């Protein structure tokens, strides 16, 4: 067995990626402090062909060297937008027919293992601040709140890891 070369991976060019159909989901990052996490989520959004990445509140935005360092070029391929008001964004997406899914640990949450995305629906996954999580107002507005099962001593996962798990899970269940 040998590792594949970059040419053998047969990846899309940035222009091909921009023209390619995207999967019916977007990611919303709200008040993410770590620029490395933001860059990592850009790479995840590229890898799993998200339709868009929303950067809200204090979440850093390109160009910034710490985002660029971990994004490895994904800031050029992924469609993204910054908005200061995550609540207004969530409400606008819902009016446009998106199902908003906050990823948070709350009473009455749905375990990600039990989540079944509805066919022909578009999903917006909200990931919150590394310390305080998804804002209470967004949790209240969400159509569903998803929780990733965890079995260790820590109470949360890194935001970039969470994004990868949620995207992979969504695509596997479609």
From TrEMBL:
<dbReference type="InterPro" id="IPR029028">
    <property type="entry name" value="Alpha/beta_knot_MTases"/>
</dbReference>
<dbReference type="InterPro" id="IPR029026">
    <property type="entry name" value="tRNA_m1G_MTases_N"/>
</dbReference>
<dbReference type="Pfam" id="PF00588">
    <property type="entry name" value="SpoU_methylase"/>
</dbReference>
<dbReference type="InterPro" id="IPR001537">
    <property type="entry name" value="SpoU_MeTrfase"/>
</dbReference>
<dbReference type="GO" id="GO:0005829">
    <property type="term" value="C:cytosol"/>
</dbReference>
<dbReference type="GO" id="GO:0003723">
    <property type="term" value="F:RNA binding"/>
</dbReference>
<keyword id="KW-0808">Transferase</keyword>
<feature type="domain" description="tRNA/rRNA methyltransferase SpoU type">
    <location>
        <begin position="26"/>
        <end position="168"/>
    </location>
</feature>
<dbReference type="GO" id="GO:0008173">
    <property type="term" value="F:RNA methyltransferase activity"/>
</dbReference>
<keyword id="KW-0489">Methyltransferase</keyword>
<protein>
    <submittedName>
        <fullName>RNA methyltransferase</fullName>
    </submittedName>
</protein>
<dbReference type="GO" id="GO:0006396">
    <property type="term" value="P:RNA processing"/>
</dbReference>
<dbReference type="GO" id="GO:0032259">
    <property type="term" value="P:methylation"/>
</dbReference>
<dbReference type="InterPro" id="IPR004441">
    <property type="entry name" value="rRNA_MeTrfase_TrmH"/>
</dbReference>
């Amino acid at each position: 067995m040998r590792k594949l070369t970059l040419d053998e991976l047969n990846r899309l060019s940035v222009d091909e990626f921009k023209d390619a159909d995207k999967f019916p989901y977007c990611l919303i990052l709200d008040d993410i402090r770590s620029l490395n996490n933001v860059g990592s989520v850009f790479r995840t959004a590229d890898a799993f062909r998200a339709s868009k990445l929303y950067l809200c509140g204090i979440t850093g935005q390109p160009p910034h060297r710490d985002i660029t360092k971990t994004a490895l070029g994904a800031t050029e391929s992924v469609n993204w937008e910054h908005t200061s008001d995550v609540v207004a964004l969530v409400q606008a997406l819902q009016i446009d027919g998106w199902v908003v899914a906050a990823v948070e640990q709350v009473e009455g949450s749905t375990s990600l293992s039990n989540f079944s995305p509805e066919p022909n629906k578009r999903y917006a996954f909200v990931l919150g601040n590394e310390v305080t999580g998804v804002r209470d107002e967004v949790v209240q507005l969400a159509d569903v709140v998803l929780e990733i099962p965890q079995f260790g001593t820590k109470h949360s996962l890194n935001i970039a890891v969470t994004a990868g798990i949620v995207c992979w899970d969504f695509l596997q269940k479609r």
